[in-house]
Amino acid sequence: MRAILSILAFLFLVSCTTASGPLFTESHSKQAPAPGKALVYVYRVDTFIAATVTADFLDNGKNVGAVNVGGYISYETDPGPHELLTETSRIDKAVYLSMEAGKTYYLRLDYDPGMWTGTFLIRNIPENEALPQLRATRYQGK
Predict the structure, then answer these.
(1) pLDDT in tens, 63-95
(2) Does the domain formed by 2-139 have CATH 1.10.533.10?
């Protein structure tokens, strides 16, 4: 009985932190950034690793959204240097990326459990690899 209750509790927690918005579609992949802006997609693939952890995503210190497992956010930003960071109760490591106007960036958040505590790794993914992964994610924007 204890095992069943533990499994049910785990499934409840995972369902509470799984993205539930509309699926990413082909029309999103054809979206161009506004003139003078860069378009950024931040996403997490659906996995059990760190499934209960929500990652708040910061761009130059501004919280642009929270990303759960199986979810994505998108936002437009000014070109130039960007400090990208997740804000969690784990170790958060900044990534620095210079963004260009008119370009689209695909940033995947991967969880590395580490030896003592985990961290999210922010990876700049090429479009041809990111789009198939994004198609399995759900929007979590504001």
Answers:
(1) 999 999 899 999 999 999 999 999 876 667 899
(2) no
Lookup: tokens for 29: 């992949």
Q: Give the CA-trace dihedral at 108, 121, 112, 41, to 10 degrees.
A: -20
Positive or negative CA dihedral for 103, 108, 114, 116? Answer: positive
By DSSP bridging, strand 104-112 and strand 119-124 are antiparallel
CA separation for the pair 96, 111 (Å, rounded)? 18
Helix (H) or strand (E) holding 122: strand 119-124
> Whole-model pTM?
0.81
Residue pointed to by tokens 């699926």? 23
- Residue 25: pLDDT over 70: yes
